[in-house]
Write a structure and sequence with these properties.
alpha+beta, Complement Module, domain 1, three-stranded antiparallel sheet
């Protein structure tokens, strides 16, 4: 069975952009660490449900 893409998912699929749901990314946590080019970045979910990326 194939999952249909609509709206933003269709746009991401058409452009070849990788898309991941934040719940899958955070796995129940409020903050994660992302390493990029030897630097550590923190991505966190605020109390208002917004995302903030800091170095």
């Amino acid at each position: 069975m194939r999952k249909e893409t609509t709206g933003a998912n269709a746009a991401a699929a058409a452009s070849g952009t990788f898309r991941i749901d934040s719940q899958q990314l955070f796995q129940g946590q409020r903050e994660i660490c992302i390493e990029h080019a030897g630097q550590a970045y923190r991505l966190r979910i605020t109390r208002q449900g917004k995302l903030i990326l800091t170095k």
